[in-house]
Specification:
By secondary structure, the protein is mainly beta. It has one helix at residues 65-71; strands at 3-10, 15-16, 21-28, 31-39, 45-46, 57-63, 81-87, 93-95, 98-101, 104-107. Strand 1 and strand 2 (15-16) form a beta hairpin. 22% of the residues are buried.
């Protein structure tokens, strides 16, 4: 089984984005199914959901960025960020980071 982790870095401040709510969904035949909920820790990471891992398939990480920026009394263009990605059979780990700013973001497959 494959483990999925994430990390959110606030590139506007250069610090980890602690307290961002993150939802992990798997694409199913009837649409997306929520399989994990979490919040980023003090280091901006979610490492501890689904310790048993996931099967190959299409997944989505949804970050509640609007609520996080609002709590910090900061404006943002993005109420949420959704990252859709494919987990391949036999892969041990997918680390999907989010580099976040109020008016832009980027992502990549980390290690």
């Amino acid at each position: 089984m494959t483990k999925i982790t994430t990390h959110v870095l606030d590139t506007g401040t250069g610090r980890p984005a602690a307290g961002v709510a993150v939802r992990l969904e798997r694409e199913g035949t009837g649409g997306p199914v929520v399989i994990g909920l979490g919040k980023t820790d003090a280091d901006g990471r979610v490492n501890d959901w689904l310790p048993e891992g996931v099967e190959a398939g299409t997944y989505r990480l949804i970050f509640a960025t609007g609520a996080w920026f609002a709590a910090a009394k900061r404006e943002t263009l993005y109420p949420e960020v959704a990252i859709l990605f494919r987990v391949e059979q036999g892969a041990a780990h997918y680390h999907v980071p989010l580099l976040l700013a109020p008016f832009g973001y980027t992502t990549y497959r980390g290690s």
